[in-house]
Amino acid sequence: MKSATGSLRLDTDSDVAMARVLVAMANKSSADTARRVARASKQQAIDGRWHGGRASYGYRTGDSTLYVVPERAALVREASERVRAGESVYRIVNRWNQAGWVTMHGVRWSEKALKQILRNPVLKGVRTYRPVLPGGSWATAPEVVVEGNWTPILDADAWDETVAVLDARRARKNGGRTYSSKWVMPFSGLIRCGKCGHKMRKQGPNYICGHHTRGGCARSINAVAIQAFIEDAVLAAFSGPTSQAPPPARPGKRR
């Protein structure tokens, strides 16, 4: 038997016992490494040092911190000011693209890319830290906000106001609701077409079966009707351990 430390023989009880000892030692070494990494990560966060990875637009990395790139930082400040003044992200992005400004990846700007940057708390000089458990896994506790060791591009009030404006616009777009797409389309990909068995996905007010070219039959059904049907079925199933209530009527089919 081959291993990272050489060959192991498992012909006798002694060989098996030795293999178990080696496995235990390897597990201990792995756990020790995980604890050291967790301690280092925690100390790095407490010190406010940059955790590594690609820097946010407006910064460059170096020596466990971030350095402001003046030209890009000026664009970020301008975008924040314009958003707070009521200008749309679309217009800002369009202006940047016409001027030839590109993202960190060297591609044209999109509304999504700019919104992600403006929402990044790194801009106001903080970083978030999720505690790491001794075994190396992430804790389920809320993220801890730590002051970073880099110069902010936006002050805290400007960043908070920018994010509040973006949140308010998203809420208006969603009819006053601030839910995620997970809740807008709770059964997308879970519902199967009754005719061909293909997965149905939410599209507008309906759940749509895949196109013929993708193995579906392109049938559709009203989302409100099917979601009500599923809710009634679940309530009927949990109405009692021996409930004999008839199943809910199936929603009408559509072409």
UniProtKB/TrEMBL annotation:
Signal peptide: none
Coiled-coil blocks: none
Pfam families: Recombinase, Zn_ribbon_recom
Domain Recombinase: start-end pairs: 56-172
Annotated GO MF terms: DNA binding; DNA strand exchange activity
Annotated protein name in UniProt: Recombinase domain-containing protein
